[in-house]
Amino acid sequence: MCARAIARAVDAKMPGEVLECAAKDGALAILNRLLRLSNIAIIISIETSGEITAIRNNSKPYSIAKLSDGERNAILIAANVLTVAAGTLLLIDEPERHLHRLIVSPLLSLLLKERPDCAFVVSTHEPMLPVDNPQSKVLLTRACIYEGDTVISYDIDLLNKTDTIDDDLKRTILGERRKIVFVEGVEHSLDKPLYSLLFPNASIVAESNCREVENAVVGIRSAAELHWAKPFGLVDNDSSDPARIADLHAKSVTALSVYSVESIYYRPAVQRLVGEKISAVTGGDLEEMLQTSKTDAIKWIRKNTKHLSDCIADKMARAQVCSLLPKKGEIANGGERTVTIDFTKIAHDEGSRLAQLVSASDFIGVLQRYPIRESSALDAIAKALNFPNRHLYEAAVRKLLIDDPKAVKLVRSLLGSLPADLLA
Protein backbone atom coordinates (compact mmCIF):
# COMPACT_ATOMS: atom_id res chain seq x y z
CA MET A 1 0.00 0.00 0.00
CA CYS A 2 2.72 2.43 1.03
CA ALA A 3 4.83 1.60 -2.03
CA ARG A 4 1.89 2.09 -4.36
CA ALA A 5 1.06 5.44 -2.73
CA ILE A 6 4.67 6.62 -3.19
CA ALA A 7 4.65 5.49 -6.81
CA ARG A 8 1.45 7.41 -7.48
CA ALA A 9 2.89 10.53 -5.81
CA VAL A 10 6.09 10.26 -7.90
CA ASP A 11 4.11 9.86 -11.12
CA ALA A 12 2.06 12.92 -10.18
CA LYS A 13 5.28 14.87 -9.42
CA MET A 14 4.18 15.61 -5.83
CA PRO A 15 7.40 15.50 -3.77
CA GLY A 16 5.64 16.63 -0.61
CA GLU A 17 3.28 13.67 -0.72
CA VAL A 18 6.23 11.36 -1.47
CA LEU A 19 7.92 12.46 1.77
CA GLU A 20 4.68 12.17 3.71
CA CYS A 21 4.10 8.61 2.49
CA ALA A 22 7.71 7.66 3.11
CA ALA A 23 7.44 8.80 6.74
CA LYS A 24 4.55 6.42 7.41
CA ASP A 25 5.08 2.80 8.42
CA GLY A 26 4.36 0.35 5.68
CA ALA A 27 1.91 -2.50 6.07
CA LEU A 28 4.72 -4.94 6.91
CA ALA A 29 6.10 -2.71 9.68
CA ILE A 30 2.59 -2.25 11.08
CA LEU A 31 1.98 -6.00 10.88
CA ASN A 32 5.14 -6.79 12.89
CA ARG A 33 4.26 -4.17 15.49
CA LEU A 34 0.76 -5.60 15.93
CA LEU A 35 2.09 -9.16 16.15
CA ARG A 36 4.50 -8.15 18.89
CA LEU A 37 1.76 -6.36 20.84
CA SER A 38 -0.50 -9.41 20.44
CA ASN A 39 1.90 -11.83 22.14
CA ILE A 40 3.17 -13.33 18.85
CA ALA A 41 6.96 -13.22 19.07
CA ILE A 42 7.81 -13.35 15.36
CA ILE A 43 9.00 -10.83 12.76
CA ILE A 44 7.84 -11.18 9.15
CA SER A 45 10.02 -10.03 6.25
CA ILE A 46 10.16 -10.38 2.46
CA GLU A 47 13.46 -11.59 1.03
CA THR A 48 14.88 -10.22 -2.22
CA SER A 49 13.82 -13.48 -3.83
CA GLY A 50 10.22 -12.64 -2.91
CA GLU A 51 10.00 -15.40 -0.29
CA ILE A 52 8.12 -14.46 2.89
CA THR A 53 10.10 -15.50 5.98
CA ALA A 54 9.81 -15.32 9.76
CA ILE A 55 12.32 -14.73 12.55
CA ARG A 56 11.73 -15.82 16.13
CA ASN A 57 13.97 -14.67 18.98
CA ASN A 58 16.84 -13.65 16.66
CA SER A 59 16.77 -16.99 14.83
CA LYS A 60 17.78 -17.39 11.23
CA PRO A 61 14.96 -16.58 8.77
CA TYR A 62 12.72 -19.53 7.96
CA SER A 63 9.72 -20.03 5.70
CA ILE A 64 6.33 -18.97 7.05
CA ALA A 65 5.14 -22.43 5.99
CA LYS A 66 6.80 -23.63 9.20
CA LEU A 67 4.70 -21.33 11.40
CA SER A 68 1.91 -22.80 13.48
CA ASP A 69 -1.65 -22.71 12.14
CA GLY A 70 -2.54 -20.04 14.70
CA GLU A 71 0.39 -17.83 13.72
CA ARG A 72 -0.41 -18.12 10.00
CA ASN A 73 -4.07 -17.33 10.66
CA ALA A 74 -3.11 -14.26 12.69
CA ILE A 75 -0.93 -13.03 9.84
CA LEU A 76 -3.64 -13.64 7.23
CA ILE A 77 -6.31 -11.83 9.26
CA ALA A 78 -4.02 -8.90 10.00
CA ALA A 79 -2.76 -8.66 6.40
CA ASN A 80 -6.31 -8.62 5.04
CA VAL A 81 -7.43 -5.90 7.47
CA LEU A 82 -4.34 -3.73 6.90
CA THR A 83 -4.52 -3.81 3.10
CA VAL A 84 -8.22 -3.33 2.29
CA ALA A 85 -9.43 -0.06 0.84
CA ALA A 86 -10.81 2.66 3.09
CA GLY A 87 -14.53 2.33 3.70
CA THR A 88 -14.49 -1.46 3.50
CA LEU A 89 -16.91 -3.46 5.63
CA LEU A 90 -15.02 -6.43 7.11
CA LEU A 91 -16.90 -9.49 8.37
CA ILE A 92 -14.79 -11.61 10.74
CA ASP A 93 -16.35 -14.89 11.80
CA GLU A 94 -15.29 -16.49 15.09
CA PRO A 95 -11.58 -15.60 15.05
CA GLU A 96 -11.13 -17.60 18.28
CA ARG A 97 -11.52 -20.80 16.26
CA HIS A 98 -8.14 -20.08 14.67
CA LEU A 99 -6.32 -18.08 17.36
CA HIS A 100 -5.38 -18.68 20.99
CA ARG A 101 -7.58 -16.68 23.38
CA LEU A 102 -4.51 -14.75 24.65
CA ILE A 103 -3.97 -13.55 21.07
CA VAL A 104 -7.42 -13.04 19.58
CA SER A 105 -8.61 -10.13 21.72
CA PRO A 106 -5.46 -7.96 21.63
CA LEU A 107 -4.92 -8.61 17.90
CA LEU A 108 -8.51 -7.82 16.86
CA SER A 109 -8.67 -4.81 19.17
CA LEU A 110 -5.45 -3.39 17.71
CA LEU A 111 -6.66 -3.99 14.14
CA LEU A 112 -9.91 -2.17 14.87
CA LYS A 113 -7.95 0.82 16.16
CA GLU A 114 -5.56 0.66 13.21
CA ARG A 115 -8.37 0.94 10.65
CA PRO A 116 -10.88 3.51 11.93
CA ASP A 117 -11.67 4.16 8.26
CA CYS A 118 -13.30 0.73 7.98
CA ALA A 119 -16.35 -0.91 9.56
CA PHE A 120 -16.17 -4.25 11.34
CA VAL A 121 -18.70 -6.92 12.21
CA VAL A 122 -17.13 -9.62 14.38
CA SER A 123 -18.98 -12.81 15.30
CA THR A 124 -17.37 -14.31 18.41
CA HIS A 125 -17.79 -16.40 21.53
CA GLU A 126 -14.83 -14.64 23.17
CA PRO A 127 -16.16 -12.27 25.91
CA MET A 128 -12.89 -10.34 26.10
CA LEU A 129 -13.48 -8.76 22.67
CA PRO A 130 -16.44 -6.61 23.77
CA VAL A 131 -14.74 -6.01 27.13
CA ASP A 132 -11.61 -4.70 25.39
CA ASN A 133 -13.65 -2.56 22.98
CA PRO A 134 -16.08 -0.67 25.22
CA GLN A 135 -17.05 1.85 22.50
CA SER A 136 -18.36 -0.88 20.23
CA LYS A 137 -21.98 -1.94 19.94
CA VAL A 138 -22.55 -5.46 21.21
CA LEU A 139 -25.29 -7.76 19.95
CA LEU A 140 -25.97 -10.72 22.23
CA THR A 141 -27.49 -13.35 19.95
CA ARG A 142 -29.23 -15.93 22.12
CA ALA A 143 -31.35 -18.04 19.79
CA CYS A 144 -33.04 -18.22 16.42
CA ILE A 145 -36.57 -19.35 15.61
CA TYR A 146 -37.10 -21.76 12.72
CA GLU A 147 -40.14 -22.29 10.56
CA GLY A 148 -39.35 -25.51 8.77
CA ASP A 149 -35.81 -25.06 7.50
CA THR A 150 -36.02 -21.27 7.40
CA VAL A 151 -34.92 -18.90 10.16
CA ILE A 152 -37.75 -16.41 10.70
CA SER A 153 -36.45 -14.46 13.72
CA TYR A 154 -33.62 -14.06 16.19
CA ASP A 155 -33.57 -13.42 19.93
CA ILE A 156 -31.08 -10.58 20.25
CA ASP A 157 -30.16 -7.96 22.87
CA LEU A 158 -28.33 -4.77 21.90
CA LEU A 159 -25.76 -3.16 24.19
CA ASN A 160 -25.08 0.24 22.67
CA LYS A 161 -22.33 1.18 25.08
CA THR A 162 -20.74 -0.78 27.89
CA ASP A 163 -17.88 1.43 29.07
CA THR A 164 -19.71 2.28 32.31
CA ILE A 165 -19.79 -1.36 33.38
CA ASP A 166 -16.97 -2.89 35.42
CA ASP A 167 -14.77 -5.09 33.20
CA ASP A 168 -14.90 -8.07 35.56
CA LEU A 169 -18.68 -7.86 35.59
CA LYS A 170 -18.91 -7.66 31.81
CA ARG A 171 -16.58 -10.62 31.40
CA THR A 172 -18.72 -12.61 33.81
CA ILE A 173 -22.13 -12.00 32.28
CA LEU A 174 -21.65 -11.51 28.52
CA GLY A 175 -23.17 -14.50 26.82
CA GLU A 176 -24.95 -15.76 29.94
CA ARG A 177 -28.67 -16.52 30.07
CA ARG A 178 -31.18 -13.79 30.88
CA LYS A 179 -31.48 -15.05 34.45
CA ILE A 180 -28.16 -15.03 36.27
CA VAL A 181 -27.87 -16.44 39.77
CA PHE A 182 -24.76 -15.47 41.72
CA VAL A 183 -23.89 -17.94 44.47
CA GLU A 184 -21.12 -18.35 46.99
CA GLY A 185 -18.25 -20.74 46.37
CA VAL A 186 -15.91 -21.64 43.53
CA GLU A 187 -16.43 -23.50 40.27
CA HIS A 188 -15.99 -26.93 41.86
CA SER A 189 -17.67 -26.36 45.23
CA LEU A 190 -20.96 -27.95 46.28
CA ASP A 191 -22.97 -24.80 45.57
CA LYS A 192 -22.68 -24.32 41.82
CA PRO A 193 -23.52 -27.87 40.63
CA LEU A 194 -26.50 -28.07 42.99
CA TYR A 195 -27.97 -24.73 41.93
CA SER A 196 -27.34 -25.52 38.25
CA LEU A 197 -29.65 -28.51 38.61
CA LEU A 198 -32.26 -26.63 40.63
CA PHE A 199 -32.41 -23.63 38.25
CA PRO A 200 -31.70 -25.00 34.74
CA ASN A 201 -33.07 -21.88 33.03
CA ALA A 202 -30.53 -19.61 34.72
CA SER A 203 -26.78 -19.18 34.46
CA ILE A 204 -25.11 -19.99 37.78
CA VAL A 205 -22.05 -17.86 38.51
CA ALA A 206 -19.87 -18.63 41.54
CA GLU A 207 -18.44 -15.75 43.57
CA SER A 208 -15.97 -16.15 46.40
CA ASN A 209 -18.17 -14.86 49.24
CA CYS A 210 -21.43 -13.18 50.19
CA ARG A 211 -20.07 -9.66 49.68
CA GLU A 212 -19.00 -10.49 46.11
CA VAL A 213 -22.45 -11.94 45.37
CA GLU A 214 -24.07 -8.76 46.72
CA ASN A 215 -21.77 -6.49 44.68
CA ALA A 216 -22.42 -8.43 41.45
CA VAL A 217 -26.21 -8.29 41.80
CA VAL A 218 -26.26 -4.61 42.76
CA GLY A 219 -23.82 -3.78 39.95
CA ILE A 220 -25.98 -5.36 37.25
CA ARG A 221 -29.25 -3.96 38.57
CA SER A 222 -27.77 -0.45 38.63
CA ALA A 223 -26.50 -0.64 35.02
CA ALA A 224 -29.18 0.40 32.53
CA GLU A 225 -27.05 -1.05 29.72
CA LEU A 226 -27.76 -4.53 31.08
CA HIS A 227 -31.54 -4.26 30.84
CA TRP A 228 -31.71 -7.81 29.44
CA ALA A 229 -30.18 -9.43 32.52
CA LYS A 230 -32.16 -10.49 35.59
CA PRO A 231 -29.63 -11.02 38.38
CA PHE A 232 -30.35 -12.88 41.61
CA GLY A 233 -28.17 -13.74 44.56
CA LEU A 234 -28.32 -16.83 46.76
CA VAL A 235 -26.10 -16.91 49.84
CA ASP A 236 -25.74 -19.15 52.85
CA ASN A 237 -27.61 -18.02 55.96
CA ASP A 238 -24.49 -18.39 58.14
CA SER A 239 -26.68 -17.60 61.17
CA SER A 240 -26.92 -13.97 60.00
CA ASP A 241 -29.00 -11.55 62.03
CA PRO A 242 -32.45 -10.52 60.71
CA ALA A 243 -31.35 -6.96 59.89
CA ARG A 244 -28.58 -8.23 57.63
CA ILE A 245 -30.94 -10.69 55.92
CA ALA A 246 -33.46 -7.89 55.31
CA ASP A 247 -30.74 -5.67 53.84
CA LEU A 248 -29.70 -8.44 51.44
CA HIS A 249 -33.32 -9.06 50.45
CA ALA A 250 -33.75 -5.38 49.53
CA LYS A 251 -30.82 -5.84 47.13
CA SER A 252 -32.35 -8.97 45.49
CA VAL A 253 -30.01 -11.29 47.36
CA THR A 254 -31.73 -14.14 49.20
CA ALA A 255 -30.18 -15.59 52.34
CA LEU A 256 -31.21 -19.24 52.44
CA SER A 257 -33.14 -20.63 55.39
CA VAL A 258 -30.25 -23.01 56.10
CA TYR A 259 -26.75 -22.42 57.41
CA SER A 260 -24.94 -23.56 54.27
CA VAL A 261 -25.30 -25.74 51.19
CA GLU A 262 -24.43 -28.90 53.16
CA SER A 263 -27.66 -28.36 55.02
CA ILE A 264 -29.46 -29.06 51.73
CA TYR A 265 -27.51 -32.15 50.68
CA TYR A 266 -27.91 -33.79 54.09
CA ARG A 267 -31.48 -32.91 55.03
CA PRO A 268 -33.29 -36.09 56.17
CA ALA A 269 -35.81 -35.76 53.32
CA VAL A 270 -32.97 -35.77 50.78
CA GLN A 271 -31.25 -38.65 52.58
CA ARG A 272 -34.47 -40.65 52.28
CA LEU A 273 -34.73 -40.10 48.53
CA VAL A 274 -31.13 -41.15 47.98
CA GLY A 275 -31.53 -44.05 50.42
CA GLU A 276 -34.51 -45.37 48.46
CA LYS A 277 -32.39 -45.55 45.32
CA ILE A 278 -29.39 -47.18 46.96
CA SER A 279 -31.40 -49.68 49.02
CA ALA A 280 -33.24 -50.81 45.88
CA VAL A 281 -29.85 -51.84 44.49
CA THR A 282 -27.91 -53.02 47.54
CA GLY A 283 -30.80 -54.17 49.72
CA GLY A 284 -31.07 -53.40 53.42
CA ASP A 285 -33.68 -51.83 55.64
CA LEU A 286 -34.11 -48.18 54.62
CA GLU A 287 -35.57 -47.10 57.98
CA GLU A 288 -32.69 -48.73 59.81
CA MET A 289 -30.19 -46.99 57.53
CA LEU A 290 -31.79 -43.60 58.13
CA GLN A 291 -31.88 -44.13 61.89
CA THR A 292 -28.22 -45.14 61.92
CA SER A 293 -27.44 -42.06 59.84
CA LYS A 294 -29.10 -39.76 62.37
CA THR A 295 -27.62 -41.53 65.41
CA ASP A 296 -24.06 -41.50 64.03
CA ALA A 297 -24.35 -37.87 62.91
CA ILE A 298 -25.53 -36.75 66.35
CA LYS A 299 -22.69 -38.73 67.93
CA TRP A 300 -20.06 -36.85 65.93
CA ILE A 301 -21.76 -33.52 66.50
CA ARG A 302 -21.73 -34.22 70.25
CA LYS A 303 -17.97 -34.84 70.06
CA ASN A 304 -17.52 -31.46 68.36
CA THR A 305 -20.06 -29.44 70.34
CA LYS A 306 -17.60 -26.88 71.67
CA HIS A 307 -15.96 -26.23 68.31
CA LEU A 308 -19.28 -25.86 66.49
CA SER A 309 -20.85 -23.61 69.10
CA ASP A 310 -17.69 -21.50 69.33
CA CYS A 311 -17.86 -20.92 65.54
CA ILE A 312 -21.33 -19.39 65.84
CA ALA A 313 -20.55 -17.57 69.10
CA ASP A 314 -17.61 -15.93 67.34
CA LYS A 315 -19.92 -14.76 64.51
CA MET A 316 -22.48 -13.46 66.98
CA ALA A 317 -19.85 -11.51 68.94
CA ARG A 318 -18.35 -10.01 65.80
CA ALA A 319 -21.81 -9.01 64.55
CA GLN A 320 -22.51 -7.20 67.83
CA VAL A 321 -19.20 -5.36 67.66
CA CYS A 322 -19.75 -4.36 64.02
CA SER A 323 -23.26 -3.11 64.82
CA LEU A 324 -21.67 -0.44 67.01
CA LEU A 325 -19.78 1.15 64.11
CA PRO A 326 -21.12 4.66 63.37
CA LYS A 327 -23.41 5.10 60.40
CA LYS A 328 -22.71 7.66 57.69
CA GLY A 329 -23.02 11.20 59.08
CA GLU A 330 -23.47 9.99 62.65
CA ILE A 331 -20.09 11.24 63.87
CA ALA A 332 -20.73 14.74 62.53
CA ASN A 333 -23.95 14.89 64.55
CA GLY A 334 -22.16 14.02 67.76
CA GLY A 335 -23.18 11.46 70.33
CA GLU A 336 -21.49 8.48 71.88
CA ARG A 337 -21.91 4.77 72.58
CA THR A 338 -21.05 2.91 75.70
CA VAL A 339 -21.73 -0.80 75.74
CA THR A 340 -20.40 -3.97 77.31
CA ILE A 341 -20.33 -7.15 75.24
CA ASP A 342 -20.00 -10.26 77.39
CA PHE A 343 -18.12 -12.72 75.18
CA THR A 344 -18.22 -15.38 77.88
CA LYS A 345 -22.01 -15.22 78.05
CA ILE A 346 -22.34 -15.35 74.25
CA ALA A 347 -20.19 -18.50 74.13
CA HIS A 348 -22.07 -20.07 77.06
CA ASP A 349 -25.51 -19.35 75.57
CA GLU A 350 -24.52 -20.76 72.18
CA GLY A 351 -23.05 -23.86 73.79
CA SER A 352 -26.27 -24.40 75.76
CA ARG A 353 -28.37 -23.97 72.63
CA LEU A 354 -26.38 -26.61 70.72
CA ALA A 355 -26.35 -28.97 73.72
CA GLN A 356 -30.15 -28.83 73.87
CA LEU A 357 -30.44 -29.63 70.16
CA VAL A 358 -28.05 -32.58 70.52
CA SER A 359 -29.85 -33.83 73.61
CA ALA A 360 -33.13 -33.77 71.71
CA SER A 361 -31.48 -35.43 68.67
CA ASP A 362 -32.74 -32.45 66.64
CA PHE A 363 -30.54 -33.01 63.60
CA ILE A 364 -32.45 -30.52 61.43
CA GLY A 365 -32.02 -27.82 64.07
CA VAL A 366 -28.28 -28.45 64.12
CA LEU A 367 -28.11 -28.40 60.31
CA GLN A 368 -29.86 -25.05 60.12
CA ARG A 369 -27.58 -23.20 62.53
CA TYR A 370 -24.17 -24.88 62.69
CA PRO A 371 -21.37 -25.68 60.20
CA ILE A 372 -21.48 -29.46 60.58
CA ARG A 373 -19.03 -29.83 57.68
CA GLU A 374 -16.42 -29.05 60.35
CA SER A 375 -17.15 -32.38 62.02
CA SER A 376 -17.11 -35.98 60.80
CA ALA A 377 -20.91 -36.10 60.75
CA LEU A 378 -21.20 -35.91 56.97
CA ASP A 379 -18.96 -38.92 56.34
CA ALA A 380 -20.88 -40.82 59.02
CA ILE A 381 -24.16 -40.13 57.19
CA ALA A 382 -22.71 -41.26 53.87
CA LYS A 383 -21.41 -44.52 55.33
CA ALA A 384 -24.71 -45.25 57.07
CA LEU A 385 -26.36 -45.01 53.64
CA ASN A 386 -23.83 -47.46 52.13
CA PHE A 387 -21.62 -44.88 50.41
CA PRO A 388 -17.82 -45.15 50.87
CA ASN A 389 -17.50 -41.41 51.48
CA ARG A 390 -19.43 -38.13 51.45
CA HIS A 391 -18.29 -37.16 47.94
CA LEU A 392 -19.99 -40.18 46.39
CA TYR A 393 -23.13 -39.48 48.43
CA GLU A 394 -23.18 -35.86 47.21
CA ALA A 395 -22.74 -37.06 43.63
CA ALA A 396 -25.75 -39.36 44.16
CA VAL A 397 -27.81 -36.35 45.30
CA ARG A 398 -26.96 -34.52 42.09
CA LYS A 399 -27.75 -37.61 40.00
CA LEU A 400 -31.13 -37.78 41.75
CA LEU A 401 -31.86 -34.18 40.77
CA ILE A 402 -31.01 -34.95 37.15
CA ASP A 403 -33.37 -37.91 37.03
CA ASP A 404 -36.27 -36.90 39.27
CA PRO A 405 -38.27 -33.62 38.80
CA LYS A 406 -40.08 -34.27 42.09
CA ALA A 407 -36.73 -34.25 43.89
CA VAL A 408 -35.94 -30.88 42.29
CA LYS A 409 -39.22 -29.46 43.60
CA LEU A 410 -38.55 -30.84 47.08
CA VAL A 411 -35.00 -29.48 47.29
CA ARG A 412 -36.11 -26.06 46.06
CA SER A 413 -38.64 -25.96 48.89
CA LEU A 414 -35.83 -26.57 51.39
CA LEU A 415 -34.01 -23.42 50.33
CA GLY A 416 -36.59 -21.10 51.84
CA SER A 417 -38.60 -18.28 50.26
CA LEU A 418 -37.23 -17.70 46.75
CA PRO A 419 -38.09 -14.83 44.36
CA ALA A 420 -41.05 -15.64 42.11
CA ASP A 421 -39.13 -14.32 39.08
CA LEU A 422 -36.40 -16.88 39.67
CA LEU A 423 -38.84 -19.79 39.86
CA ALA A 424 -40.90 -18.67 36.83
Question: What report would you give on this structure?
Answer:
The chain is α/β, with parallel strands linked by helices. The chain folds into three domains: 2-133, Rossmann fold; 153-255, 3-Layer(aba) Sandwich (Rossmann fold), CATH 3.40.50; 262-329 and 341-423, no CATH class. Helices cover 51% and strands 14% of the residues. The protein has 20 helices and eleven strands. The chain has helices at residues 2-11, 15-23, 27-37, 69-83, 101-114, 128-132, 167-173, 191-198, 210-221, 242-250, 262-265, 268-282, 286-303, 305-323, 343-359, 363-369, 377-384, 390-403, 405-414, 420-423, and strands at 43-46, 52-55, 62-63, 89-93, 119-123, 138-147, 150-159, 179-184, 202-207, 230-235, 253-255. The chain has a four-stranded parallel sheet with strand order 9-8-10-11, sandwiched between helices. Strand 6 and strand 7 form a beta hairpin. Helix 12 (268-282) crosses helix 18 (390-403) and helix 17 packs across helix 18 (390-403). It is elongated, with a radius of gyration of 31 Å. It starts with a helix and ends with a helix. The mean pLDDT is 85.
Brief characterization of the structure:
The protein has 424 residues and is an alpha/beta fold. Helices cover 51% and strands 14% of the residues.
SSE diagram, text form:
Layout (H helix, E strand, L loop, with lengths): L1 H10 L3 H9 L3 H11 L5 E4 L5 E4 L6 E2 L5 H15 L5 E5 L7 H14 L4 E5 L4 H5 L5 E10 L2 E10 L7 H7 L5 E6 L6 H8 L3 E6 L2 H12 L8 E6 L6 H9 L2 E3 L6 H4 L2 H15 L3 H18 L1 H19 L19 H17 L3 H7 L7 H8 L5 H14 L1 H10 L5 H4 L1
Parallel strand pairs: 4-5, 8-9, 8-10, 10-11
Antiparallel strand pairs: 1-2, 2-3, 6-7
